[in-house]
Structures are given as structure tokens and as C-alpha cells.
Amino acid sequence: MTTTRKSPVNDIDESQLKVSKPRKAAAGLEAVAIAFKRGVEQAGPARTVRSMFRINQNDGFDCPGCAWPEPQGRRSPAEFCENGAKAFAEENTTRRADREFWAQNSIADLSTKTEYWLGQQGRITEPMIIREGETHYTPIAWQDAFDLIGERINATTADRCVFYTSGRTANETAFLYQLFARSIGTNNLPDCSNMCHESSGSALNPTIGIGKGTVHLDDLHKAKLIFVVGQNPGTNHPRMLSALAECRKNGGKVVSVNPLPEAGLMGFKDPQTPAGMLGKAAKISDEYLQIKVGGDLALFQAFGHLLLKMEEAAPGTILDQEFIESRTEGFEAYREARAGIDWEETERATGLSRDEIAKVARMLADSDATIICWALGVTQQPHSVDTLKEFVNILLMQGNFGKPGAGACPVRGHSNVQGDRTMGIWEKPAPWLLDAIDKEFGITSPREHGHDSTECIEAFENDEVDVFVSMGGNFALANSETERLEAGMQKAGLTVHISTKPNRSHVVHGKTSLILPTLGRTDVDDKHPGGEQFLSVEDSMSMVHSTQGRLKPVSEHLLAEPVIVCRMAEATLGSDHVINWREMAEDYDVIRDRISRTLPGFERFNERVRQRNGFQLPSPPRDSRSFATPSKRAQFTVSPLEYLEAPEGYLIMQTMRSHDQYNTTFYGLDDRYRGIKDGRRVVLVHPDDLAELGFRDRDLVDVVSVFNGEERRANKFRLVAYPTAKGCCAAYFPEANGLVHRDNVARVSNTPGFKNITVRFEPHTKTAKALS
Ligand SMILES: Nc1nc2c(c(=O)[nH]1)N[C@H]1C(S)=C(S)[C@@H](COP(=O)(O)OP(=O)(O)OC[C@H]3O[C@@H](n4cnc5c(=O)[nH]c(N)nc54)[C@H](O)[C@@H]3O)O[C@H]1N2
Ligand SMILES: Nc1nc2c(c(=O)[nH]1)N[C@H]1C(S)=C(S)[C@@H](COP(=O)(O)OP(=O)(O)OC[C@H]3O[C@@H](n4cnc5c(=O)[nH]c(N)nc54)[C@H](O)[C@@H]3O)O[C@H]1N2
Ligand SMILES: [Mo]
């Protein structure tokens, strides 16, 4: 085992790429070994072992990996997965991007580095600044940094300030952060949710009256049928595989819908069971529908049609008429719209046969407790909101809300992305929320909506941003139109990045730029008059619980996120502001008390967050089959059929995560389950499509995307023959982000079309204009 804790000196060498056959099962002991290896490389064996056993324990820290919930009862001593372990190894690293690092590397040098190299340099150890005309970041004292922020915000108008949030931010921090933005007078609060599950909220809010899922972990164990649509849990939510395996053990069935035969959807070697340790894989999917990218709306409309037909043939046996009549609205219009179907078009849209679809519709008919789980495969396309409303139709027809083992389950990404929204990080806040904040704090929040993350690209480009503050994340690289966004960000007067590790957004900075290094999840937060503090998060199933790091921070100069927000606020608004920021920075119980008086569901927050498993937020559809829509009924909706079809010579590209990355952070360069090693600039293409387009496996190409007649380019990708659905292809995020036109978004939610890129390939030429 290599135990280099030094940062890599060399960057990615794509000529090392190796390709082997995709795997048929996820996890196993290899996963545990790799997790341990990555941990030791970053932090050494002692620190790795000490922290591994604290992940997701009642008195430990919430895994920064994903938003999947923890079991309520018995917890395994190692309640984590390979990728959770890698996530904390990244944070837990003893590598340091200290002042020598910044002195040795100019912005010009850093701008040639990949995200992998930047992230592998280690934790940032003190506040850094770069001013207009300078070539290097240099250290700055904390108070000087805060004063500069206050000065710049006060020198401009509130609508020219933007406050971005990435979903790792804890509840208390998020609450303070939105309060700060609103105290200044702006709702410019874009967040990573805008690029992620925004479509889910946009579909669920109007139909079931809440923008969140309606199932608990226990429901997955009890379900008769679970759909996993547009999701790769083996990599992105590995602990979900245990829940799927348990459902099957209890007699339930699992259907996966995905253009790629993802390893984790096929089989699971649970490293926490004896059989799994011996390498025996449990089957996960009873049926696998290899859908074409963008075909899910057509598929679920076909399910609706078939359920109606079956009900017609045997009235009273398939649909839950009582539920439909007493709890919903719009069923007649829905029934009429789905009475007929064009099978030829449905087969073309989905790439599936009528028989395959009918077989799964029968499984739906036979199940009296169905859950539909989904993630980004269905949230980042033009018709995403319609697709998700169609999922709701299917669930409503059989009364799959408010009964055990049933419901809607959007599987969130970042570990507190759902909590951030609950805390008010929202550019389009509901009026009741602003009223509640104003009443509790005596401020007047602005009512005008702010920019979402897509709108920010234009705001930057049009020179409408003077101050950009980023609470975590990597805005420049996570968003679409990389080149345009980067050019725009450099026009801003001041960019402020509250970060743990170097990333691209620090390199394509505003005229003046600050990097404020912060404590992470695993770090102890003990520099307070009242001693050690803890924070809280909300998981994908609305459980709120505490999280507390215990490790010694990599540097004594790091500040906790809530402290950074309060000190920015004090420097901007003055120490005599109507809100006592200092008292909240000193004692997080004060923040929680104020949250409990502002937000519904958080009554007695301080007391309940200290309970062993935390507490569950209310879910009216689940708790009492009630729906907070204007008519108090759940809504059936009718959407026209829509799907993605590439013109001749083109394919529809989706962008996704490899097994060795966390969004824009790369743990390594392998995508083990898909058989890709030591490289990331690949496009996975069906062998027939390769042949039809006149290319061969491993050809080096430039990728050209078209949208509204405009072209975007990303050069030097390797084509790899891969068993994906035909007509579509796949590449990694963020290498392909430059291909996504800013106007390519999902309707209503405005989420970038990261899974809807129309592309063609051109043989790579050295002279091709380098755009990414
Ligand atoms: N280890 C690790 N864990 C993570 C993350 C990470 O980067 N690394 N990221 C976190 C975040 S922020 C998020 S949001 C989640 C993301 O979790 P996922 O949604 O699983 O992430 P993606 O890699 O984007 O995978 C999308 C899946 O959808 C499929 N897909 C693409 N297009 C379509 C389509 O049109 N229809 C259907 N049915 N399927 C389609 C793809 O083949 C792929 O399997 O994971 C979270 N967890
Ligand atoms: N093409 C394409 N693009 C996508 C997607 C896609 O599927 N395809 N997915 C989208 C999705 S789902 C999401 S959520 C976004 C993600 O967008 P972001 O959330 O903006 O990006 P991340 O890569 O998660 O952010 C990583 C950075 O966060 C900082 N960081 C890590 N931990 C902490 C911490 O504890 N505190 C603070 N303050 N900073 C920390 C580190 O400096 C690190 O460099 O990307 C979106 N972009
Ligand atoms: Mo996400």
C-alpha cells in the first residue's frame, strides 16, 4: 500500500487511460480496502481509523458524502460506504495548501491545473487575498478580510451582491447566511439545488403541496415495489443499496430505469454481511429498463395508460378510487389524456419495447405499496418537471401516499442541500417565510426575487455583480458554459470563497478575491466562550440531527462557518445592528432558539436535536394524507408527450459522476464499476452508434454541441465503446460542462440541461480552437 501523504506534483496524464469491462455488482471488500487506502494516503493510518468509526454515529459527524439517511435503530459500527470514507479522507487530509503553496504558485500557473491537482494540494490554512493586478494570493488578517467585505457591500447596492450556497452548509450556518443577505436587502441566494433537484421541488410543490419526498427509510424496507429512476446509487448513494437489498429480502421488487447498466443497480456485495464479504453479490434489480436519455416521461405516460386499461378490464382492482375521489383533483382530465397511446412513438422515445413496458406496468398493478426514487437522470432536461409530475400521477392513481412502504422519494445529493432550503436559502422565498423572519428579527426582508444559479451567469456577464460570496462549492466549474461564466466572474469587484480546499473558482476570481478557510464536518469547533459547539443537518428523508467533528483542524487559523457569517454581517451592518450577530456566533444554541421561533417544525429545536436520532420534520402527505395545495387536494396533471431526439449524425449526451469524484472534487482518476481507469476525458458510446457515425473505439475526438444554432466545443476526448442505450452517450461532469449552453435548461425549474446535450464528434485536430 502506498502511503504518500505528499500532494501530487504532476497533473493528470490522459494517455494512461485503461478500459476494461464494466462490473456487474457494486461494493464488496475491495470497496473497504480502497476506502482505507485513500484515507491513509491523505491522513495516515491513525487519523483514518479514528475518524472512520465516527461517521454517522449518534455522537459523531454527519458524513459529508451524501444525503442518504441513517438507520434509526441498530447502527453498524461502520455506518459508511467507500465513497463516504473517501469524502471524509478528502477533508481529513493532513496535506496543506499553506502560504508557501500560494507563494509558489501564481494564478497563471494555477489556471493551467486541473481540478484534480488543485483539490489534491490539501486544506487551506489561513485567509488569503489577491488584489487587482497581483499575480499571487497573499495572507490577510481575518478582521481585515471582514472589513473589506463590509466596505465593498456598503459601497454598492444590495441587488449587486450575490450569496451562493453549496449543499454541505449546516442548518445553523444556512439560516444565518440567508438572514445576512436579507438584512442587506437581497434575495440573491442561488444554491447548488438550482443545478440539482430544483425540478423535484418544482413538480412536487404544486402537486402534493410540499417540495420534499414523502418516505422514510423504513418505507423502503416495507415497499412491494421500488423504482430507481435516473440514479446511480452504487456510486452516489451506496448505503441505499442496503435498503434495496432489504426490500427484496422482505419480498419486495426493484425496477431500475437507466440508460447505463450501472453496477450498483445490478448487484450488491454488502461488505457488512458474511456473504457479501466472501464476494457473493445479492441481486438488486428484478427488472432493468434500459431507457434512452430523456425517455422517462413517455415511459410513465405509458404506465398510466396501461394502469387505466387494466382498471377498465377489471374495475375496482387496480386504482385506489377512494383515495382518488377523496384526496385528489384532476383525475378525469388525466384519464382522458391517457386513454389513447401511440405505441410506435412511445417505443421510439424510450428505446424500449411495448412488451418490456407492459411487464413492468403489470408489476405496478400488482403492488399495493410503491415507491418511486429518482435523482439527476430526470431533473436536468427540458421536460424534467413534467416527467416528475407524471411520477406523481402514477403514485396518486394507486393511493401511494400516506401508507407504509409507499411514496415519492427524490434522492438528494449534498448532505445538507435539503436543510439549506428549509432554512431559507432560496432566491424565490415564500412570503410567509419572509414575514416570519421579519417578525422574529425586526428587519424588512426584500420581497423581490433574486437570481438563481443560471441567472447568475448572465448577471456576471452583464457586469451586474459587485460582490459574490460563495459558501462552499465551486460555482465556476459546477455550472454550465464554463468559459462564459469564468469570463463573467472576473468582472466582479470582489469574490469571496469560504472554502476548505483550493478549487477553480479561486483561480478565475473577481478583481479582488478572498479565500476564507473554514472548519469542515470532521473538525472540532471549540473556540467559543461556552466550549465546543455542534451543528445540525437534515437528510433526504427530513430527519434533522446533530453533527459534531472531533478532529484537530489542520491549522489553528480556521474559523467555523457560522462565525465567518456573523463576522461578515457585523463588519457590514455594524455592531449596533438590530440583530445581535456576536451572540449567535458565540453560542449556536442561540441560533437554534431563533430558528425554532421562525420556522415551522422546529419547535423546541435545541431540546429535540439533542435526542439520540434527532427528529423528523412533518410531512403532511405522509403523516395524514393531506396536501397543502390551494384546494387542499393532490393534483393530477396532464403534460404533452416530449422526449429527446438527436438529429442525424448527433447523439444526446448526459453528464454524470465517476466513482472517484465528489462533484468537482476528484478523489482519484478511476471509475471502477464502469471499467475506466486513469482518465476522465472519455465519452461512452454504444458500439452500433460508433460504427454508424464512422468512428472506432478509443478514437480521439473533439466534441461539438449544438443548441439554438450555436456551437460549443470540448476538445480531446477518447471514445469508448460501452453498453449504453443507443442514440445517447455519456461523459463526466465537469469536463463536459463547457458544452452546455446557458439557455439549455429545464422549464420552470431553470436547472441546466446537464443530461440533454446534443453532440457530434470530430476527429481531434491539434489546431482545434481550445474552448475547454
Ligand atoms: N460519491 C459521490 N456521491 C455523491 C456525489 C458525488 O459526486 N460523488 N454527488 C452528490 C450529489 S450533489 C448528487 S445531486 C447526487 C447525484 O446522484 P446521481 O443522480 O446518481 O448522479 P449522476 O452521476 O448525475 O447520475 C445520474 C444517473 O442517471 C442516469 N441517467 C442519465 N440520463 C438519464 C435519463 O434520461 N433517464 C434515466 N432514467 N436515467 C438517466 C445516468 O446513467 C446515471 O446513472 O449524488 C450525491 N452523492
Ligand atoms: N455537467 C454537470 N454539472 C453539474 C451536475 C451534473 O450532474 N452534470 N450536477 C450539479 C449538482 S447536482 C450540484 S449539487 C452542483 C455542485 O456544485 P457545488 O456544490 O458548487 O460544487 P462542489 O464540487 O460540491 O464543491 C466543492 C468545493 O466545496 C468546498 N468545500 C468542501 N467542503 C466544505 C465545507 O465543509 N465548507 C465549505 N465552506 N466549503 C467546503 C471545497 O473548497 C471544494 O472545492 O454541480 C452541478 N453541476
Ligand atoms: Mo447535487
From TrEMBL:
Annotated Molybdopterin dinucleotide-binding domain residues: 651-756
Domain of life, source organism: Bacteria
Record InterPro entries: Asp_de-COase-like_dom_sf, MopB_CT_YdeP, MoPterin_dinucl-bd_dom, Mopterin_OxRdtase, Mopterin_OxRdtse_a_bac, Prok_molybdopt-oxidoreductase, YdeP_MopB
Keywords: 4Fe-4S, Iron, Iron-sulfur, Metal-binding, Molybdenum, Oxidoreductase
Entries under CDD domains matching the protein: MopB_CT_ydeP, MopB_ydeP
Signal peptide positions (record): none
Cofactors that this protein relies on: [4Fe-4S] cluster; Mo-bis(molybdopterin guanine dinucleotide)
Transmembrane segments: none
Annotated ranges, domain Molybdopterin oxidoreductase: 123-496
Family named by the database record: Belongs to the prokaryotic molybdopterin-containing oxidoreductase family.
Protein name: FdhF/YdeP family oxidoreductase
